[in-house]
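User: I'm curious whether this sequence folds into something compact or stays loose and floppy. Could you predict its structure so I can see for myself?
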Amino acid sequence: MRSPSADSVRHDLVLVGGGHAHIQVLERWAMAPVAGCRLTLVVDRPVAVYSGMVPGFVAGQYTSVDLEIDVRPLARRAGARCIVAAATGVDADARRLLLGDRPPIAYDTVSFDIGSTVAGRDVPGVREHAIPTRPIGGFVRRVDDVLMRLTDIVFGIPFLPFAVVLVALLRPSIWNIILTISCLLWRTTARVIRSQVLSLRERPFVRAARVAGASDLRIMYVHLLPNVMPMSLLYVAFGVAWAVLAEASLSFLGFGDPRMVSWGQMLYAAYISGSIRHAWWSVVPPGLCITLFTASVFLIGREYERVVNPRLDRG
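Assistant: Here's the prediction. I'll summarize afterward.
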């Protein structure tokens, strides 16, 4: 939609900030503009963060990307001017909005929706143990940094010593082994998938979907998930193979579930009985089964990747 010409402008409406109320104004203005009124949006950064989705973000239902709204396509659809600058003050007498590093702009009506800043940082313990949710952009970055630092810490934990200590404390059982493997299995997959999603969100087709008005769920399931699925299936195959090897390693060390039969338990029984040196038939079959199983899971994952992403066959 085109902006009204300077000669036809009878009223200047200036929106300062990319809050939810101003987003709604832009959407409604795109559908039903007011004749003779020029709309101007002033934001300090072109990407606004919607604070209403923070509870879902904290609960893990949304990513930090889902909270972001690029206001520039909305402004173009509404025929509004979009000025990326920080509002530093208001000259009420001259009806001018003062901007940093830019000349002031005139207004007839001005609206402020710039969010709020959490007070109470001087309360003892708040600065050290609390994360303010306003400004919301800083809160999202802090939460993302905390999650990534947690991943870094988990990367520093060696599997076998951690598993041996945990299983020894909880007693050997298949459920404790599953718990031990689950505690460390996710770290590589989480980092790789996060990196791929951060790369995909900057692709033109995702930006085009946002401009077209696609919802966050549609972007996730129609545009992001199909592109992440091949990598996810590959890491599922890696995870299954790694879990089998981890269980076999723990069982061979004597920390497996004594009530269950596994390839690792067979190797452990051959080792403690001394037959591992002279009875090859007690060692080779379980070792060969572990090798064939992990290889088959990897090949199945690769084939699923070809089914999900047919472009791999074109090469």
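Summary: The first strand starts at residue 11 and ends at 16. Residues 1 and 79 are 5 Å apart (CA to CA).
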